[in-house]
Amino acid sequence: MLSSTSTQRYKLIxxxxxxxxxxxxxxxxxxxxxxxxxxxxxxECAWVALGTGQFRPGDAANxxxxxxxxxxxxxxxRVETLVIxxxxxxKVVQVLKSVHPYEEPAYDVVKLEDF
Length: 115
Hints:
115 residues; alpha+beta; Alpha-Beta Plaits; 2 helices; 22% helix; 31% strand; disordered N terminus; N-reg_PII/ATP_PRibTrfase_C; ATP phosphoribosyltransferase; DUF34/NIF3_sf
């Protein structure tokens, strides 16, 4: 358990085409995501679930997948992982954006509390 003086924890959640899953995970793990501090020294920790994402690229889009104006449905993975500290979380998000195939990757950062 983390003490109240420990560094803030964040959960990064993102969605990615299945074919790009391993590339994005490798990049964020190399940047420092997925590490659990404490006993065990676990690394490269993540939860992954598969589902179907959909989007319709607008007129100004330059889609990696699909065509402007057409509804696209694709098998995607939802990835959840822990990141310790705000500065590292910002770095990991930038790395994710740099390797993710989409113009605008869908992701969330959630600040975690310890109870």
